[in-house]
């Protein structure tokens, strides 16, 4: 039996599979799933709006577009800025990465601030009918994602100061950047739905 | 396949866990090993099967006589709501996650799941939301009482005006369950896509892997819709918004769309892995290749895609326009095509096979028989005129229990018996298993077959009292339910005592083909570790002269030596 075993081992080539590098795959799958929640909210918004005889609460004819438009421009351009931060990281220019990355964080923070100012100037609330609920639900849920994105970026910025952290693996940065693009695309759809379709 | 004569001396091992501590404490810790997590899931889920089953017997106890004499009707509402919720979210989903965790890595040759820590997190959310759900029995006003689908406006009534109420805890528990399922789904899909053994192309994967992939993609696509609906329901209930309130310009039917967009596919999330189990077990126990392997594999995705566009058939009687009814009647009936492909493939596999009536095979055959029956009543219900007549009667209850229990739970029991030797390293007692099957089959048939008549005669569901003309069907059903309760005794006895002192299991007790059967029983911590077999063919070539993996004999010898 022993000799037979050795013969079998002699010609045997062990097979291998990949052990790591699944993070991006997993994260993309997660984002696809996450987008369905937004999709559900968007469909809900559209259905309620189409079927409602009176959509806006009493005394309101629509919402101001100026402030959100500035916000949109900031958020969309931040998606380009974060791309350059990634470029710097790939070129191993750590300080370039940190500075551009931080600028993206600032742009995201300005977006949250703009959202806050807009909310505080509105004359309707969460309880103001289907529109009030939908408006705060959609912008709030998206805002939570922006805040999450900024916090994740902060985490990645701190991590970049750990020695040897980016030797070979920039998974975290890539994932956060992907998340930021996702938040951006969702906002464009949301902006069209709430602000342009009045 | 060559039959391996194993040396009985080799399997006389004192310690069934060659690697890792042989102690029970790891099952109560944040363990990241998929095999430990799988058993954690399964044992937790079986515990909740007992609780859900207890509630079911209380319900059947109430319904054994026409007047509502055992419980107040309000209590009865809570009972069936919790019964449904516990059985789906605390029993079926966790136990299928458990089986998937146990089976996916060994079946594809992976050492573990792609994200072991997330995997453990997904499991530990189960006890958290289970406790939240069970706590709702003790809050003022009792647990959620609006049925497991929680339709507004009933679900957003909150008559006592308390912020913490049964319905609110229900929504939180369901949302946490959703998070757990999404984490699990991301994990399973990534593992299957990225970590298969060398040579295992998509069309060499076991059917169980195909069905898990199809089911988990369905989770990813459907579940967020329910989560979105649940968030809006939570806001309506707690913060006074008007998403689903007519008086505030909302639309209660919108919730039904959110709910069924997920909850209909959810049935397929549960039934697809069971189809996988059938496809795995029939070839093993009839010693024949799976008939039409490629068609069975692709049919899983046919079901996935179609199941996303059938949900309105649950809403035929809620003011749905005629064109929508016709459209969804058509799509619903289309599902019978891929499902029919599978059923024919299984029957063709059995045809002329050398059938061994072991416990797992009996559960499979019983499950297939019940599935054909439940499938036919399903096509009946898809027909708009029939559905408008029997919708919300016991006919629907009987139909979905034929699928949920008589098919899905049967398949789960079959899988537990079939893979029990592999993952515990012990053989179960065949006699007790057969007693379990006989009691389960008789109990289940007696429980749900008569209810079809009650439903056709017009007995409404979700009522604590009913007209005496339905009494006979309900007495039969209640007797069946109590027999099902008794059936759990041989099962528990069998599982516990076999695991403690059963005969040691050889690596491949059923002479089955498959990567998991090339591992020792129980498999070592990282399955094949650094030496993964190269797959040459799909694992169903019984009686054909096609090798399954390269150097098969080497791996068989190795699996025997590990003991």
UniProtKB/TrEMBL annotation, chain A:
Regions that span the bilayer = 24-48, 69-89, 95-113, 134-158, 178-197
GO-annotated biological processes: aerobic electron transport chain
Q: Where in the cell is it found?
A: Cell membrane
What InterPro entries does this protein map onto? Answer: Cyt_c/ubiquinol_Oxase_su3 (IPR024791), Cyt_c_oxidase-like_su3 (IPR000298), Cyt_c_oxidase_su3-like_sf (IPR035973), Cyt_c_oxidase_su3_a-hlx (IPR013833)
Q: Does the keyword RNA-binding apply?
A: no
How this chain sits in the membrane, per its record, is: Multi-pass membrane protein
The Gene Ontology terms for molecular function here are:
cytochrome-c oxidase activity; oxidoreductase activity
What GO CC terms are in its UniProt record?
plasma membrane
Q: What is its main location?
A: membrane
Task: Spell out the PANTHER family in the cross-references.
Answer: CYTOCHROME BO(3) UBIQUINOL OXIDASE SUBUNIT 3, CYTOCHROME C OXIDASE SUBUNIT III
| Family statement drawn from the similarity comment of this UniProt entry | Belongs to the cytochrome c oxidase subunit 3 family.
- Protein name, as recorded: Oxidase aa(3) subunit 3
- Species for this entry: Prochlorococcus marinus str. MIT 9201
What lineage does the source organism belong to? Answer: Bacteria, Bacillati, Cyanobacteriota, Cyanophyceae, Synechococcales
From TrEMBL, chain B:
Top-level taxonomic group: Bacteria
Membrane protein topology class = Multi-pass membrane protein
Q: In its UniProt record, which GO terms are filed under biological process?
A: aerobic respiration; electron transport coupled proton transport; respiratory electron transport chain
Cellular localisation: Membrane
Q: Quick one: where is this thing mainly located?
A: membrane
- Is Transport among the key words of this record? yes
Q: Which InterPro entries match?
A: Cyt_c_oxase-like_su1_dom, Cyt_c_oxase-like_su1_sf, Cyt_C_Oxase_1, Cyt_c_Oxase_su1_BS
Query: Which keywords, in A-to-Z order, does the entry hold?
Result: Electron transport, Heme, Iron, Membrane, Metal-binding, Oxidoreductase, Respiratory chain, Transmembrane, Transmembrane helix, Transport
**A molecular function GO annotation:** oxidoreductase activity
Q: What class of enzyme is it?
A: oxidoreductase
Regions crossing the membrane? 36-59, 79-99, 120-139, 168-195, 207-235, 259-278, 290-312, 327-350, 362-382, 394-420, 432-451, 471-493
Query: What is known about what this protein does?
Result: Cytochrome c oxidase is the component of the respiratory chain that catalyzes the reduction of oxygen to water. Subunits 1-3 form the functional core of the enzyme complex. CO I is the catalytic subunit of the enzyme. Electrons originating in cytochrome c are transferred via the copper A center of subunit 2 and heme A of subunit 1 to the bimetallic center formed by heme A3 and copper B.
**What is the name attached to this protein's record?**
Cytochrome c oxidase polypeptide I
């Amino acid at each position: 039996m022993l000799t037979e075993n050795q013969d079998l081992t002699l010609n045997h080539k062990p097979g291998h599979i990949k052990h790591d590098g699944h993070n991006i795959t997993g994260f993309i799958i997660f984002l696809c799933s996450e987008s369905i929640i937004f999709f559900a909210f968007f469909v809900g918004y559209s259905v309620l709006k189409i079927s409602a005889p009176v959509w806006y609460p009493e005394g309101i004819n629509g919402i101001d577009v100026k402030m959100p438009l500035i916000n949109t421009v900031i958020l969309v351009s931040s998606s380009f800025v974060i791309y350059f931060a990634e470029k710097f990281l790939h070129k191993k220019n750590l300080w370039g990465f940190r500075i551009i990355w931080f600028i993206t964080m600032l742009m995201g923070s300005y977006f949250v601030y703009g959202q806050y100012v807009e909310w505080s100037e509105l004359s309707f609330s969460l309880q103001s009918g289907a529109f009030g609920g939908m408006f705060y639900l959609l912008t709030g849920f998206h805002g939570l994602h922006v805040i999450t994105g900024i916090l994740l970026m902060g985490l990645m910025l701190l991590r970049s100061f750990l020695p040897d952290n980016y030797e070979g693996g920039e998974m975290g940065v890539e994932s956060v950047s992907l998340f930021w693009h996702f938040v951006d695309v969702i906002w464009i759809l949301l902006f069209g739905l709430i602000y342009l379709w009045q | 396949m060559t039959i391996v004569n194993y040396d009985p001396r080799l399997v006389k091992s004192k310690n069934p866990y060659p690697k890792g501590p042989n102690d029970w404490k790891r099952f109560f810790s944040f363990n990241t090993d998929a095999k430990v997590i799988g058993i954690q899931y399964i044992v937790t889920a079986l515990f909740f099967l007992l609780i859900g089953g207890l509630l079911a017997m209380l319900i059947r106890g109430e319904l054994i006589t026409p007047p509502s004499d055992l419980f107040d009707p309000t209590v009865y509402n809570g009972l069936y709501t919790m019964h449904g919720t516990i059985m789906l979210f605390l029993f079926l989903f966790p136990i299928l996650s458990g089986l998937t965790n146990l089976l996916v890595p060994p079946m594809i040759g992976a050492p573990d799941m792609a994200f072991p820590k997330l995997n453990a997190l997904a499991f530990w959310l189960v006890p958290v939301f289970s406790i939240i759900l069970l706590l709702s029995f003790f809050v003022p006003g009792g647990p959620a009482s609006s049925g497991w689908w929680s339709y507004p406006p009933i679900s957003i009534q909150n008559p006592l005006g308390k912020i913490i109420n049964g319905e609110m805890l229900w929504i939180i528990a369901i949302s946490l369950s959703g998070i757990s399922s999404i984490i699990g789904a991301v994990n399973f899909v990534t593992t299957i896509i990225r970590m298969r053994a060398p040579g295992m192309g998509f069309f060499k994967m076991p059917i169980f892997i195909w069905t898990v992939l199809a089911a988990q993609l369905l989770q990813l696509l459907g579940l967020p819709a329910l989560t979105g609906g649940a968030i809006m329901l939570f806001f309506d209930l707690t913060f006074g918004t008007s998403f689903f309130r007519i008086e505030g310009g909302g639309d209660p039917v919108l919730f039904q769309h959110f709910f069924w967009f997920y909850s209909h596919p959810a049935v397929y999330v549960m039934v697809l892995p069971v189809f996988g189990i059938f496809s795995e077990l029939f070839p093993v126990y009839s010693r024949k290749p799976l008939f039409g392997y490629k068609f069975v594999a692709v049919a899983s995705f046919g079901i996935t895609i179609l199941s996303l566009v059938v949900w309105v058939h649950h809403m035929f009687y809620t003011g749905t326009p005629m064109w929508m009814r016709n459209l969804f009647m058509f799509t619903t009936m289309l599902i019978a095509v891929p499902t029919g492909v599978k059923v024919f493939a299984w029957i063709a596999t059995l045809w002329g096979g050398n059938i061994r009536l072991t416990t797992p095979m009996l559960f499979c055959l019983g499950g297939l028989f019940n599935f054909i029956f439940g499938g036919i009543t399903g096509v009946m219900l898809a027909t708009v005129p029939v559905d408008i007549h029997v919708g919300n009667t016991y006919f629907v209850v009987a139909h979905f229990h034929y699928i949920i229990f008589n098919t899905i739970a049967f398949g789960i029991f079959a899988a537990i018996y079939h893979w029990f030797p592999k993952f515990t390293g012990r053989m179960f007692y065949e006699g007790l298993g057969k007693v379990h099957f006989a009691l389960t089959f008789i109990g289940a048939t007696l429980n749900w077959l008569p209810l079809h008549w009650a439903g056709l005669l017009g007995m409404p569901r979700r009522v604590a009292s009913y007209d005496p003309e339905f009494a006979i069907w309900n007495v039969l059903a209640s007797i069946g339910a109590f027999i099902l309760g008794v059936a759990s005794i041989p099962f528990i006895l069998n599982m516990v005592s076999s695991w403690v002192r059963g005969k040691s299991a050889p690596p491949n007790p059923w002479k089955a083909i498959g990567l998991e059967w090339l591992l020792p029983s129980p498999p070592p911590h990282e399955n094949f570790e650094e030496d993964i077999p190269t797959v040459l063919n799909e694992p169903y070539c019984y009686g054909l002269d096609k090798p399954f993996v390269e150097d098969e004999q080497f791996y068989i010898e190795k699996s025997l030596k590990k003991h």
